Recover the amino acids of this structure.
């Protein structure tokens, strides 16, 4: 996968598409979480793991909401996004029925760029940061390189899927920690869940604690093949960045920020990033949302 961070909003012209997306399906999950599938062929054909859409939740609400893409089917022309209801706008989006339409702009942003020389890709997703990890896992599954992904997901509300018992061995972990996402299990990708809420089959602790246990099980040569990709709330991402620093492995993080235009014009989603030329303010929407973790969380 190759992604190039645009240096100016104008570079997005010709790569972003406004689509009158038809709602194909809406799934409701505990914790006020929803997965919505949209007919969005232009976005589906061009999205990469880490991309997001800017969606109008309802015609009565002018401000759009940024939502990470969880899956795409370029041939069928659909995308899926997962979101948790926070506020009236997303509540209205959750109430949409198949056949209704919503305006969507996408795909937006620079995605993850895993390094083939580090095939042991550790994907860490927290809460609504889970979708890009699922998208990336599917990309790695379909890519011709010899990837060996491990997906770890954390949540304090029920996960947005019916957890299954994994048959994929994880010798670095006790056998009781066997909960997984059925879709990842079907793809043959090892995955484990973490929570402090006591869900059956989950690791009791933070997802970063679970990741540390795996990293500690690796030899020095094994660590040399590891790269971390992560998306989730900012405190979790900072903990992931510190974990990567502790074990000396590279890490990319996808940031979550409020944004108005999502196309680089308003500069309302800027974050401080360390660059070769010194500190700089970067726009999460078009310069990101994926950044080098050490540049955002220098420690």
């Amino acid at each position: 996968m190759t992604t190039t961070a645009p240096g100016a909003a104008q570079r997005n012209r010709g790569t972003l598409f406004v689509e009158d997306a038809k709602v194909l399906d809406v799934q409701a999950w505990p914790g006020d979480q929803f997965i919505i599938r949209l007919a969005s062929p232009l976005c589906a054909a061009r999205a990469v793991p880490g991309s997001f859409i800017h969606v109008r939740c309802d015609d009565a609400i002018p401000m759009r909401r940024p939502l990470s893409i969880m899956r795409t089917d370029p041939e069928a022309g659909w995308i899926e996004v997962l979101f948790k209801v926070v506020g009236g706008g997303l509540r209205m989006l959750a109430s949409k029925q198949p056949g209704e339409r919503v305006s969507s702009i996408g795909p937006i942003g620079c995605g993850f760029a895993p390094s083939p020389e580090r095939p042991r890709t550790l994907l860490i997703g927290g809460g609504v940061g889970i979708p890009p990890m699922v998208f990336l896992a599917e990309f790695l599954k379909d890519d011709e390189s010899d990837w060996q992904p491990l997906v770890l997901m954390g949540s304090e509300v029920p996960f947005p899927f019916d957890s299954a018992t994994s048959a994929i061995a994880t010798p670095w972990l006790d056998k009781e920690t066997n909960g997984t996402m059925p879709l990842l299990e079907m793809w043959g990708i090892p995955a484990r869940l973490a929570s402090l809420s006591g869900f059956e089959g989950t690791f009791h602790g933070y997802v970063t604690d679970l990741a540390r246990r795996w990293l500690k099980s690796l030899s020095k040569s094994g660590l040399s093949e590891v790269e971390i990709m992560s998306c989730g709330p900012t405190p979790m991402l900072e903990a992931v960045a510190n974990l990567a620093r502790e074990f000396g492995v590279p890490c990319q993080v996808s940031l979550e920020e409020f944004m108005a235009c999502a196309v680089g014009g308003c500069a309302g989603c800027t974050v401080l990033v360390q660059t070769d030329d010194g500190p700089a303010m970067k726009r999460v929407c078009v310069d990101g949302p994926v950044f080098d973790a050490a540049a955002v969380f220098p420690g």
Observations:
- The radius of gyration is 18 Å.
- The chain has eight helices and 17 strands.
- The longest strand covers residues 17-29.
- Residues 120-296 form a domain with the Rossmann fold fold (CATH 3.40.50.80).
